[in-house]
Amino acid sequence: MPTIELLKALLFESVAKLYANDYYLIARGGMETACQTRVMYYMQDMLYNAPRFDIWRQYNLDCEYNKNMHGVKELPCSNRYAQIDLVLHIRNTDANNLLVVEFKLSGNDNSHDIEKLKNLTDSNQQHRYLLGAAVELASQQAMYTFIQNAEISDNN
After folding, report:
1. Number of helices and strands (H, E) in the chain?
2. What is the edge-to-edge ordering of all strands in the sheet holding 99-105?
3. pLDDT in tens, 64-83
4. Using a CB cutoff of 8 Å and minimum separation of 24, what contacts does 69-76 make?
5. Distance CA 155, CA 8 (A)
6. Distance of alpha carbon 145 from alpha carbon 136, whole angstroms
7. pLDDT single digits (tens) 45-64
């Protein structure tokens, strides 16, 4: 399976486990950080225990990450730093940035997240994540917007 499809599978399966096991957090509302933490937990479990994901076992999975080398992760053309909900990467290098994810509860505006993901996946910029995902946690199912090389790509 190609890398992009495998990264999507990791995210889809982790979010599906959130809906199956922790739906209360979504239904309750106002629990975005709790939801993203549970998704991280399920992802970490799969990275260590599902053989098809073991190629990334040496990678770091971080929540609310804003570091870059010895400073903060800044967005190009902005005086803001990038606080990222969830990243799969190797710390202290931009050479191995795989996945960057932003979560929103249903009904919240995610336009800022989309712009952030475009910047973070732009191959002409510093961070160059392979895949960005904006995940809207709606009441019945999650909705995904995927971004590759600063462009919205196929959402499936």
Report:
1. 4, 8
2. 60-65, 84-89, 99-105, 131-137, 142-148, 151-152
3. 765 454 544 455 555 555 67
4. 73/127, 75/116, 75/119, 75/120, 76/119, 76/122, 76/125, 76/126
5. 10
6. 8
7. 999 999 999 999 999 999 87
